[in-house]
Amino acid sequence: MESEQARQLDPVVKLTSSALNAYFYLGQYDRFLESLPPGDDSALIVFYRGFGRYYQRSLNDAAKHFDRAVELDRSLLQAQIGKALSLGIRHRDTEGLSILQGLEGRINQRGVGDAEAKYKIAQAYSTLGEKQAALRVFRASIDSGFFAYPYFLTDPLLDNIRSDPEFRRIMDAAKQRHQAFASAFF
Hints:
Radius of gyration: 16 Å
CATH architecture of the largest domain: Alpha Horseshoe
Number of strands: 0
Shape: globular
Mean pLDDT: 89
Strand content: under 5%
Low-confidence stretches: none
Number of helices: 11
CATH topology of the largest domain: Serine Threonine Protein Phosphatase 5, Tetratricopeptide repeat
Structural class: mainly alpha
Number of domains: 2
Order of helices and strands: HHHHHHHHHHH
């Protein structure tokens, strides 16, 4: 992939961009983890390492990475999402939900436009069993421009909300936006 070639030329290229997630959104979690730069001094990379391990169901390892990301940069939105997931792994869902509620409030207050980060909050809400919040933030992520419809179809972190009628309406909106984007650019 082009992102791997770019990283060979410059190991820190695009550390904060979606190029980092190409394998991830293809469901190729091993390749995704292999493509991450080595080291544990970047909170974002450590979060994504934990996220990949979470998808592989290596939960204790994921929790260690999530906790390390928060140690590195407590202010990083993704690190806080990871902390919420880490608390969920440890069956401390109420504490994890409190973190997510705080993040959602700050995002709304500040008008943060990172649609993919909103999606990660929706995933975490879903995983921790807060269905209405998961649906609300999932809708907001799509409305803000993150509409990876093919990935949404199989993302296991959305399994807790799939049976809700609102989920189908949100997926229809994601599909329409995905198709419009594809027809405009491909």
